Amino acid sequence: xxxxxxxxxxxxERIKHTKILYYIQLAKLLKEKFHFISRATTDCCYIExxxxxxxxxxxxxxxxxxxxxxxGKKDGLxxxxxxxxxxxxxxxxxxxxxxxxxxIYG
Length: 106
Known about the structure:
Helix content: 40-55%
Oligomer: single chain
Number of strands: 5
Strand order of the largest sheet: 1-2-3
């Protein structure tokens, strides 16, 4: 059993693997309990209901911080937090895009 105090518990790779496991479990539960057609991928979980397809994305804000702090390391020491294209895209998809969609579609 691991806890958040363990060394290396919150690394980028572990977060990605945990998100994939959640997508698989979510797709399996939706298929069993509600008989939805669902498919888990490495990035999201697709669900079909009433001829509409929904994409569920799990976001973890510490993942953005870890990507930025890893990019800012120099000689193994943390210097600054540096934004990268990956962190900007992740921040856009998890913070800004849901707000924009809520304003547009109500």
